[in-house]
Amino acid sequence: MAKPNTPPRGGGPNKHGFQRPRNTKKTFLRLMGYLARYKALLCLVALCLIVSSVASVFVGYLLKPIMNDYVIPGDFPGLLRMLVLQGGVFLLSALCNYVYARLMVHIAQRSVAGIREELFNKMQEMPVSYFDTHLSGDMMSRFTNDMDTVSEMIGNSFASLLSNAITFVATFIMMVVLNPLLTLITVAFLLLMLLVVKTVGGKSRTNFQRQQQTLGALNGYIEEMIEGQKVIKVFSHEEKAMEAFTALNEEYRSAATLAQSYAGAMMPAMANLSRINYAVTCCIGGLLAIGGVFDIGSLGAYLLYVKQVSQPIAGISQQVNVLLAAAAGAERIFDMMDAPPEADEGKTVLVRVEKEGDTLTETTRRTGHWAWKRRDGSLTELRGDVRFQDVTFSYDGEKTVLHNISLFAKPGQKIAFVGSTGAGKTTITNLINRFYDVQEGTITYDGIDVRDIAKDSLRRSLGMVLQETQLFSGTVADNIRYGKPDATDEEVRAAARLANADTFIRHLPRGYDTVLTGGGSSLSQGERQLLSIARAAVSDPPVLILDEATSSIDTRTEKLIEKGMDSLMEGRTVFVIAHRLSTVRNAQAILVLEKGEIIERGDHEALLAEQGRYYQLYTGNAELS
Amino acid sequence: MRLFWPLTKGYRLWIVLAVVCSVGEAVLELLLPQAMSDIVDFGIATGDRGYILMTGVKMLVLALLALLCGVGGALCAARASMGFGARVRAAEYAQVQRFAFSDIEHFSTASLITRLTNDVASLQGTLFMGTRICVRAPVMLVTALVMALRISRELSSVFLVVLPLLAVAVGVVIAVVGPFFTRLQQATDAVNLVVQENVNAVRVVKSFVREEEEKEKFRRRSDALRTTAEQAFGFVVSFSPVITLLMGGTITALMWIGGHYVAEGTMLSGDLMAFFTYATEILASLMMFAMVLMMLTRSIACGKRVAEVLRHNSAMNEKDAQEELTVENGDIDFHHVSFKYHADAAEWNLHDIDVHIKSGMTVGILGGTGSAKSTLVSLIPRLYDATEGSVCVGGRDVKQYTLEALRQGCAMVLQKNTLFSGTVAENLRWGRDDATDEELREACEIACAAGFIEAMPEGYDTHIEQGGTNVSGGQKQRLCIARALLRKPKVLILDDSTSAVDTATDAAIRAGLRKTLPETTKIIIAQRVISVMDADLILVLDDGRIVGQGRHEELMEKCEIYREVYESQQEGVEDNG
What we know:
Number of strands of chain A: 16
Strand content of chain B: 5-15%
Largest interface: A-B, 152 and 162 residues
Number of domains of chain A: 3
Oligomer: heterodimer
Number of helices of chain B: 20
């Protein structure tokens, strides 16, 4: 199989440092597309946001008339009026703040759910090859890490950027209104702050990258060692493992200290520069006030603004980082969405039929008979006849995995594949159910080219039991019913009995209603395998593919389920891949594969008589691995 | 907390400095409005330019000092927290190194990895933020309150109304948000589970044509997540407007009351302006407090998880061990041993095992899956301790040896084995650090690994990928055997270690072991009868009991299960003789 044999790991690309998006603008535009449907609401958000920000800035300005015109002269009725006005502005600001924030939550959660569902639906449509060539941890992280950053951006960053920008502009305007001269001082300090953001921020980014690299190395080491911890114990290798760990840990510590120093110093530097600005303004403002060009109320209001004006800058510089991270995340999500879906041009579908003599009529009743319905409406009975005609196949277009394979399986026949890993056994089964498509030659099913059959129909007519049992969280019955959601309880039980799984299931705490978690990790490997056999039995397909289905069951247990397996296979066309040669002995045809070619074929006796490769394997003189 | 305190050693000075700097910054910062009010009330009122300049310079100095404190505090905090993080990680890692098998299983590998990576990262992040914000919030609160009281006791009474209100608001938020976020996490997990299952089981989903059902399942869970998130965040966003209102109410009340004082002449206008500043700082610091609390609850959970590891007493101790003792021969005795993995489990995994093995014997162990073959042999190098009875190696109870000495004497090739990233030679030298190239080759010769290693382009220097993914299953098993052989053990245990090796090579390895290690006791767990047929002693296990022991011929006669297994594997061969 082409799948790289790598265990799934969390993290994905995010783990190894900060990635910059390739095309930020395009990604943003596309993200905007998901928000477009909330246009009206977004306008309301923007409106509330502007009102709220401007109101909160304006409140500060009120200090001037309150002090100058009412408090100092002692005009209390006037003061009351002003205070009512001020309270009103506060109320307005709070109200608008709540409205836009609540709306944003609504919009963000809905759009994110939309993206999430679209991604999942697209993923369901992707061909198996996509899953084989991408790490599962990587795919997972699109749904977790990347989705989180995007959600953070839609939910927070947009509103926060806008509100910061408005606050900044409004504050600045008010400052100019109050005193243009003092504003010059503030401008000088703002420029100084920008300089700090640029230099310290740049340093911070380079060091941050180094921190992430060393962290990646450290965490990678921890993962490898903890996974191999038992071997470490057996070899008393604890001290050695500690040494290497200590070195990596120290490297990360020093890199992280530097990176965090820069990152951590930024905020206090900005805040205190703003305080120096405050001190200078205070002094010069006081001098101006003595000169009579400035009044106390204005000075008070102006000083409030000095404290506020630098906050939006810090906020914006923070949000820009979030935006970039989110754009990189969104890009990865879109990359996955844009992967081409599984092509399905097949038009022949599987339908239920009524059979009277040789005539078939389509029906919706459950008759137990099925037929292929071609595009022209003609019906061919489903029988389970599979033929390969000169099939050549390669996963990557370079290395040919199957060369000129021709074979046939008549309805009810059992065909076995034998050969080492990489010989192409699983590839053959991957082609029958069209997980992959042949490049040369044809595969026919009941005389129809499989490429003309709709994939759903094709796969419904094939049952699979794989070596790696995959169970889903849910009850035992749900898992057995997986292949046929409308199966009755009785059908489920019958299938379990057939697979010899009924006994152990009834011994589970809640029998068929026992909930399996973690892929059924509470069951033994053999029990899981029995369930997957029952699962295949319920769906009752005419063709069955058993890919190393019994290899994780010991020989004695295998003996016990042999009867179940036999009755499962009866009357069906079966393709068997087995490690243990005893399981393939009674096949009508055994095909020995080597490097993608059939080197021997025949039944058990004939192959032994041939004294070739099969004979060597059977007598234990060659390795199957 | 008590657990973590010793780990701050060497960084305590930095922590103290960071705290001092934070306190300094907060206090200095709050002295500024007072100076401002002086300028207004004395400087401007009296028109004293010199006074204004002097106060201005004073403010500038204060602000510069605050800048120093702020930046310095950040630097100290970075040094302290990253250092502390490294300490915690090292302590935890060292603790894991002391863990017995049962401890590793107790926590599970995946959980240990999370506790060593994410949880520690969260802790060091908390210390970094904590030394600044946790200190800053209360200091700001107290200082601002003191300054406000100094300006006007009467006016400060406004806080008596506002602060309880604010406390209630914060309390409500924390109380309500907690459960909300637990539910949010559950909904997120449910969504991720579906994704994970579908990513891993794509072949099953596709072959049973379940795409539509899976989409529907995902849509339902995604919907539930969306609803929960909307509720949770919808509640959280009400916090900020409520605070704005409280703040606005406070300022308005202060202006009304303060305005009267100023008009009456009992308060100066500059003082009133400074008072506003202090009022906002008090409210802001309380909000900061709320944020800190939320952050702390999250990191306390992480801290607890790390502490669990640090506090966990290893199930294995060496209190009866004698330092100088080494394993002298390969005698193995099980004296009525019973075993279960958990003390409170109802089922025994091994029942009353009484087996005596002489040094140099070859012992085969057979039995179905779940018959506790691996459990039995793992008691020999003390991967687990017997629950009842005792296990002796070389005539002494295994507990009398240090674990290192015992495992030096008893090498075990695990069923689920691991190779590490590094060269072939490096992996082999896990067996013995100082093994010469010649010794490596000898061991590989016996394990039938020399052939394929030498055929690789770089021979013994070939790089092995993490987990040994670039060698085949059979090759990996043979490398693992060679690695164990390098220990030159008195007891060699092979736990189904040749399952992917062909029968001919398997036989060659066994013959090699017999020839080159006559003194060593060889214990072989196998699926195939043929692998153990010629052993000096064969043990047949069923459901944790020994149901047969003896040589092949005896067992064929006496032991039904053995015969069944033998026949199920021999059928074909016999038919075709």
